[in-house]
Amino acid sequence: MSATPGGRLRLALFLGGVGLHRLAAYRLDFLLGSGAFLIRVGLQTVAVGVVFRHVPAVAGWSYHQVLFLLGCALLTRGLDHLFTDQLWELSRKLIQRGEFYRYLIRPVDPLFALLSERFFHPDGIGELAVGAFLVVWSGTALGLDPGPLQWALVPLLILAGALIHASVKLFFASLSFWTVTSMPALQTATQLSEFAGYPLDLYHASLRTLLTWVLPFAFTAYAPAVYLLHGDTGLLRWLPAVTGLSLLAALALWRRGLSRYEMTGS
Amino acid sequence: MRTALRPGRYLPFATSGLQTLLQYRSTFLVTGVTAAAGAAVTVFLWRAVYADPTGPGPGGFTRESITTYLVVAQVLAVAHANRVDDEVAAEVYRGDIAVALTRPVSYPLVRLAAGLPVVAANTALVGVPLLVLFAALVPLTVPAPADAALFLLSAVLSVLLAFCVNLLTGMAGFVTTNTWGVRMAKQGVVAFFAGQTVPLDLLPGPLRALASVLPFRAMADGPLTLLLGRYEGAAGAAAVLGHQLAWTAGLVLLCAVLWRAAVARLEVLGG
Amino acid sequence: MIVAEGLTKDFRIAERRPGLVGSLATLLSREHRTVRAVDGISFALPAGSKTAYIGANGAGKSTTIKMLTGIMTPTAGRCLVDGIEPYRDRRRNARAIGVVFGQRSQLWWDLSVPDSFQILRRVYDIPDTVYARNLALYRELLDIDALGTTPVRQLSLGQRMRAEIAASLLHDPKVVFWDEPTIGLDMVLKEAVRTLVNRAHAELGTTVLLTSHDLSDIAAICDDALVVDGGRVVHQGTLHDLLRRADRRSVVFEHRGGPGPDAVVRAIGAGLPGATASVTPEGRVRVDYPADALTSRQVLGFLLDRFELADCYAPEPDLETVLRQIYRGGVPAARDGGAA
Q1: Model ipTM?
Q2: Where, by residue number, does the polypeptide cross the bilayer (chain B) (predicted)?
């Protein structure tokens, strides 16, 4: 059963259920995590607000447009966070402490087995909620009126953004197969994703290029936001290709890492 | 307890702290990229606000001085990244803290001894290059010699303050297992109320009032006020240093009291 | 069921230098050396056998088990588990085996034991009847219900090991690989674990490969022994045969009348060259003799001749003594066991 796609889906749903159950069991930890997250995003929103107390627009973006962009960034990051948080553990210690073997002794795909340990990570739920709030609130303030095509595209855009986040995470976490721990590299990459929460127009051209074509975080928030705000599809056209290539690159490195692990056991 | 204060006993902790750091050389890279990215986001954002290069803009900042403020704030943040919060939280979580208590040394002082070389290495290997990098890319304000001297004094105090704040954060491990969340919250609050994301003088009235009474102001905004000469005469400088000194003393005291309480609880509950 | 043919595994190990200067030097360069952990070992274990895999620390036991479970690919040679090369067809192999690595957990760290079992039930497609039967067994023998809904990371070592052992047997595997399965278990639970695996063996014909530092585990579970030293097999056969390889034997006896125990000890020392005698705390006399210099016939003949024996037994050489002897190189190996 678990070998078929349907069986895998049922197993995933079950794991999700278990994850939600755990959420209720650790209410305090959950509240603390969400609280911390709310404080951070809250202060970030305030900081943006302070900027716009002094100027009406920054690099052509208004206050609500920037918040809309921030909301988009949180939605894609939250969705990714919900499913792939265990990759942090891979980069941090699973190889270093020799715990990775446990994904190889089960009759399921190792990547699936790995991710299954943290399905429905509670911190992701907070990000999704705040992201949705920011998008709806600023979208309403901007008088945004999406057409049916845009409505239909929204879930796909969020999914693609989350997949890009997941690919970057998987790529840098897989480096740990060679370097034992790749936490620093993953932290660095994640840190760069913070740029995605602000308009790319602010940055120097070299940084824009880096965020668009090397670590494609531009596609996780900026490209969809520009499309939804202005109907501009210049960057969005590349989204399917970028998503596919990122995913392929990450999976290829993961597979190579896995076979290296089988060779060295460490 | 008297033997706990012999400095020689803490030397091994200082060298081992540095040794651990050197083993994970990539942490310097992470600290560097994190600081550079943090500085870049705020610098890009605020330089867009001060797009007009002539004359002072909001809060009396010029384009150069606001850039200097934001970049040096990140350099200070690098000097404050002493890892004390992670290490204390981890030791409490694993229960290793009980072993640490059996040694004839004071645990907070051990952490200070282990943290200082980290601070020195971070400042030298990440902070200074970061400053040089930004100085090469964007024009910065050159401070008056007296202001620079006052800044250095104030920066040393800020390192001590950061140690206390991180020790208190790490001690949250005694009450919750989600120390990750506590550290995240601390990071956000410190970055905001120290002035790393928004110069405190630009905050609206009530927030500014709140920021001026919190201790975090002394971690970046205080030293930066001195560096950029944004104070009124000797009395103004004394007020900034006084606020810093008062909070440093207050937090040291708070650490001492809470640490005693935590140890007492540990002895009762047995970890 | 389990076959190894010239199974070999090499590792490249990075050298770290000690001290502050050392870590500075490591910043700049790393040196590597190759270590042969498993040196072309061959063996064949039949289906339904219960074999102890024995060797000193660093003898390559864990590495071999990793290759047999498909976690690691051999450098040379191959192995087969139920006809499958585990590292080639890992997922198919995984269905047929159960694994415990006592030092490391394989359960869902943040979940409770019942939740973990529910997941395993789906992962292995365990039929309801099998699941119910096994769970009832664990309730009875391992008191698994007492673990409650605590997440695995908060369990004590002993509690966790109970769950690990149960998890390794839950899907009625054809082969179980247990690496140090009784760490942290008290005597009662150790006994329960032995009962559990022996029952699985008796009812389902489960093949068992076990490593343990606790030699009483080995004696209680295993019939066969596979001894490796320096990456090579030095004994494959029954546990009984292994014990007979001891180079010293002993006889303990009680006697009536005649000279006192001390005089008896002196008489044996003089009459049986090579043998040593001592008085046990119970007042019996114990004779130890080298198996290559004296036969049991000579020793017993001598004793029967001189003393009026009231009781006499020859204890089996204990495993610990035999193994100590093997690791020292005291027992001639099947092949010479030079370290790699």
Answers
A1: 0.84
A2: 28-49, 112-138, 150-175, 234-259
